[in-house]
What we know:
The chain is mostly helical and 304 residues long. The protein has one domain. It has 14 helices and no strands. It has helices spanning 3-31, 34-42, 46-72, 78-95, 102-110, 116-119, 122-148, 155-175, 183-186, 192-219, 226-243, 251-262, 267-278, 280-300. It is globular, with a radius of gyration of 20 Å. It starts with a helix and ends with a helix. The relative contact order is 0.16.
Amino acid sequence: MTVRQAKLRRSLRNGVVTLIVVACIAATTRLFDWSSVAAALAHLRAGLLVGAGAPLLLLIALLRGWRWLVVLGMRPTPRLLWQSFCANGAAAGLASLTPFQVGEIVKIRLIPDHHGSAWRLGVSAFFVERMLDLGTMCCVCLAGLSVRFGIAWAALPALCIPLLGAFIGSHVARRLPLPARLRPYVEVLLHLPRTVAAAALSLPIWGLYCVLWWIALQAMNVPILWHQVAILLGAVMLAVVVSMTPGGLGVSELSSRGLLLWLGQTPAQAEAGAIALRLLTPIIVLVGVACLLPLIRQLRKPPH
């Protein structure tokens, strides 16, 4: 691919994303009853949203930091875990404001310890993490759908699919002859214990996201059941990932409103719920900044 073709492709991609954002924001502005949203915001329990949301986000960043070290094959010493925790928290804050999950890419460079061969697995580790997140997210949604359609017994097997997928993926990667250009993306998959451990850590990470979204909806006084939160989380996040919009702007509001209506909420509750989920963004950004500051200070320290 020539430089001109690459620029044209990038411009086309950015144009499509911009068109999606503009269309979704216009639809959101037109569809939402902003007077009812304002009334819901007047009864927002901000203490619950911030007081419970911020610690949950910090715990999620800690688990993500632990998983990142596991995927890289690095022992989670207190120093490395602290660095990885800060980098993952900062990356989440950046990813909530930028398109194409830029924050998740930047975290590879944010962590100040480029430890030999382990850090050369960065590309493969990033790919494996994204696949695990996508798979776990879909399986959480599938578990919620199982409960909704009266087959609750299938919820637990659905949540185990990421573990099975990691096990099968590792075996396939070790036996499948791949082109040289694809090998860097599957290098981590060659290590079965790492892959399965990362998959196991993905489950509590997305479980905590379910709790976070439930708290946001409760803070806006939107009644919702746990399996409905699982459906909402999985489907909305999938829409955001597919759209590649910055922080899911517009896409998140429209998809969450539609899903909440399908789950039986009134239009006023659905719109309040969509705005409640958007209110998580500034909290994620503030937590990201709080994680970024100590990391920057550490990066500025002269080497011993």
